[in-house]
């Protein structure tokens, strides 16, 4: 009698495992179809093959050497980060995000607590500023990594 239950339990476990694997296979195939993904092979990229395919022409100038750091060999770029943004216009979203971060800084400095609704709105602005607007449809329930990012 005990052997029958053990056999039945083993069969049920194997059946559940098989069903899970089949479901995972089907979800992967559907994901490839929905995203129009294809498996392709890129041609091997070796430096000798690239040089033989595109011989240097004498009338074209040689590529310029990369600029050397002007601050005594220090590799960090802390000092010149503001000059990188010169001439870049800020959008309405950037202005809202700047105002929100100033509001949070002022609230933290004064020691007052921010209402929960304002915190959620600020978090939404933060997510939009860092990851972009959420226009993508909700991913499949079987795609755990995609749902975590969504």
Automatic annotation (TrEMBL):
Organism: Panicum miliaceum
Keyword Glycoprotein assigned: no
Top-level taxon of the source organism: Eukaryota
PROSITE patterns: ACB_2 (PS51228)
Similarity remark: Belongs to the ACBP family.
Positions with biased composition (Acidic residues): 81-92
Region spans: Disordered: 37-92
InterPro entries found in the cross-reference section: Acyl-CoA-binding_protein, Acyl-CoA-binding_sf, FERM/acyl-CoA-bd_prot_sf
The organism's taxonomic lineage, starting at the top: Eukaryota, Viridiplantae, Streptophyta, Embryophyta, Tracheophyta
Name listed for the protein in its UniProt record: ACB domain-containing protein
Keywords attached to this entry: ANK repeat, Lipid-binding, Membrane, Repeat, Transmembrane, Transmembrane helix
Database matches in Pfam families: ACBP
